[in-house]
Target: Pirin
Amino acid sequence: MENIILHKADTRGNANHGWLQSYHTFSFANYFNPERMNFGALRVLNDDTVAAGMGFGKHPHQDMEIISIPLEGDLEHQDSIGNKTVIKNGDIQVMSAGTGVQHSEYNKNQDEQVKFLQIWVIPNKRGVKPRYDQITLNQEDRHNKLQQILSPNPDDAGVWIHQDAWFHLGKFDKDITTDYHFKKQSNGLYVFVLNGDITVNGQALNKRDGFGIWDIDKVSIKADSEAEFLLMEVPMQF
Model:
């Protein structure tokens, strides 16, 4: 029997720091909800908007896989392992914090905000050498189909992390349908709607809604309007 959990967009935690507007699907910083600590190995799903010229100062991480998906604008990344790069819409960034890394993320544009998703996945290996990667995705590869953007395999499509997790993006026209088949039977799938309206296994979802499902082999997805969404398959036990 499948298990499900629904997180409507307006039930998320919210922090407004002036320069940063952040919506938290799971407990984070000053937002604590014991019912929303994680979805399996998916620990953090933050929907962030950073004001022009502002950003996150240098801060440390350890033993966490940190994924950033820019939705709008440019974000400058610097870290303690020698990287200084810019990520923008169409890119995906991953950082394995491992034994420890410090990084900063800034919106260098003085006249436009940056929107991005910050996602943390609990790794299956601790104490690894810190690692950074970013790639530019071909956005046509998600038009009316699922585009793999992350996996456990360095040689597979997208970036890779230290966990048996697979992420896909879809950008569907109205009435397009597809099935998603789980890569591992024991995993769960968390669906996050970026834009538009979709139905997943009979559950209607709207912009910024989240929906988790597990103990099932596949899910059916239908676009009820033009829609863009992120699928995150992660271990439920870790």
Q: What stands out?
A: The chain has two domains: 12-136, 139-235.
